[in-house]
Amino acid sequence: MSQPKPAQGGMNISRVIWAIAVVLAIFFFDQLTKYLVLQEDVFNAMACLERSGPCGKIELSSVMDLSMVWNRGFSFGMAQSEGLARWGLVIMQFSVSMLFLVWLFKARYRTTAVALSMVIGGALGNVVDRIRFGAVVDFFDFSGPWFGVEFPLPGALSSVESIFTPAYLLDGRLGLGFPYVFNIADAGITIGAILLLVDQFLLKRHDSDAG
Question: Annotated catalytic residue: which of 186, 199, 207, 209?
Answer without folding.
Answer: 186
